[in-house]
Please model this.
Amino acid sequence: MIGQQDLSYSLRLAVRSPLFTLVVVLTLALGIGATTSIFTVVDAALLRPVPYPDPERIVVVLGARPERGPERISLAPADFLALRAYNRSFSQLGAFVPGGSVDLVEGGEPVQLQRHLVSAGVLEALGVHAVAGRLFQADDYRQGHAAILSHRLWRNRFAGDARVVGRELLLGGERTRVLGVLPADFRIPGGDPDVILPLTFKPADSTDRSSAYLGGIGRLRRGVSLAQARADLGNLAHDLAQRFPATNRGLEMSLVPLPESFGMQARTALWAIFGAVAFVLLMTCVNVSNLHLMRSLAREHELGIRAALGATTSRLVRQLLTENLLLALAGGALGLLLARLALRLMPDPRGVYLPSSLGVGLGARAFGFTVLVTLASAVISGLLPAWRASSLRRPISGERGGTAGPRHERLQRGLVALEMGVAFMLLLGSGLLIRSFVAILDQDLGFDPGQVLTFDVSLPASRYGEPQSSQQFYRDLVRKLEDLPQVEAVGAAKEIPPEEPWTFHPGIEGEEVPKSVSVGWQLIIPGYFEALRTTLLAGQPLTDRDRSGSRRVALLNQRAVRTILGSGAAVGRRLRFNGEYFDVVGVVEDQRDPGGEAVPVVYFAYFQTRVPADLMRSMSFVVRSRASPRVVAGLVRSAVRSLDRSLPISRLTSMEERLSMAAPLVRSRFNALLMAVFAGLALLLAAVGIYGVISYSVRQRTREIGVRMALGARRADLVSMVLRRGLAVALLGVGCGALGSAALARVLASLLFGTGSADPLTFVAISIILFAVAALACYVPARRASRLDPAVALRAQ
Model:
């Protein structure tokens, strides 16, 4: 137990040594503050309990095709309905459709909302309760025209007015009754919806195995383990593969615990970043431990006398640990303030690794974590000084540094070598992530995003229910946009980068395409490739003449040609889509998302291709102009409103801004920035550590240096001697860091793009930087040693 005498003496000692106290407190605050700030992000994304009862029994049901990789895929309606009929493992089971949008034309300016569709069983499986109104009931799924608002939309759009419950809003052009409001902490896989709408299955869905767009959510029955449920679904998947080999061969059903589903993409990156900041904290403790070791040498005479007068080893150790704890508590308190500041300055993790409805903050969990880290830091940084104190059983002689022999120096240098090794690992990780980020920025996307304005339009079914009405609206809109001043080209597509297209299994006339092959499909309005300046490599483009009643045509990108036809020629072949054949008339350059690989895509003419009407009502436009996209934006908005004043426009922004929000680019930027900051801190701490050890070594050898100088040693020789000692420590640290970097590189491999985890250029550059910093840190005390007066040095004790 810490006594009042120990605490009082520690306070007096801290006041008598203000510089030492300030350095230790600031060093600890830096490490603790950085660690706490990252913990809040990791906690929110990966560790925070899912806000539902018995969350360990809630699972997400997805598909998987192991031969294509570990990624989970959506389920087809027929497969989910088969699962629901076969169900033996779940007390509640439902399906949801993530993503999608719906227009809201009440309560302010028309806006486009993000929506999820949920079937019966989803909200019941989650165990969620409405904070206002009620949730869906059986009649709501049958009748439709019902909605549940997110807490965010309720607060922002309707000022938290409970009277919105029961009102009918114009959602997607249809009068829809608001039944209730979701709680603020509501979370569901696949996004962060503004509104939830009921999902109802049609009779045709029981045979639809070609369109995979569903996810399942279920709650395990009491007594059913996750392993049992997985085995049960494995039997079902095997049975479906036997009955429907054309679509289900190789298809497995995967169960993912709900908490894991929220952090699937964030897990590796966030744990890597948290590991980096934990290493920074370790370096902080090592530096503080070295500082305490140096001070304990200055106090050896005092401690030795106390030991000779009867102070027990435990008494001396307790005193030193009390001093450490006092400084650590001050560092922890300051670290909390620095963590709050860091959370304001760091990139916002929402939209990167967190849904926009979840923020990060210093709550009770972060405070508890800080207390634990502070206590751990006090113990770790105080162990070595306390261990040295335990060996003091007699007064120290009057000779300065009587016990500061080679063993002590080896200990200090070993600690600094550890710091250098950790710094090398973090610098290498940061260098790899930065090179990956630069590679994404320099990537050839297959189109030119400059001077391109983009926007999305989703036509309501109430006014544009028939495909002909949607097609006429888009014809009129294209004409109006082409007539705008400064506009060079106008086009549109079902999805534009960085969105991914829907997929289908293609058929080629006269050939058998393996069932495992799937490619994306796009509906485009002529002018799309011209607006993005994507090169036509062979054949002819789609034109305004490709309309209903004319020859059905399609374009393939390069990747689709290789995927479907191998090395064969594409132009002149006939491709089957949606039960109809299309003549392949051309091949275009691959388009890529930032940080992504090219995917096979087939492009069809919007005005001659028959797909479900709801898929034809939503299009994304690209407008290339000679003026800035911001200048053209107002004209585009006016053009749309001249055709339909109540129609909302969403994501009216430049293509460059749209691409800057691409998930791989945003995550790469977030990872690289944080790792660079922590690597910089590690480098600073390593430099301070090696400077402190070399400075102390020079002070300990003042008399030796005086003798060397009296015997004729040149100043350059003294500088070289000190530099050799410091750089030897740096070399040892780099060697240790190189060994540890092999494991780090394997962890980071999945986060890299365009660069390998064993990049020799980064390795060499980091080694040079580390040695340069070490040399600079050693040069200052070396230069000071070379300028000592020999007479003064010889008199030093």
In short: The radius of gyration is 33 Å.
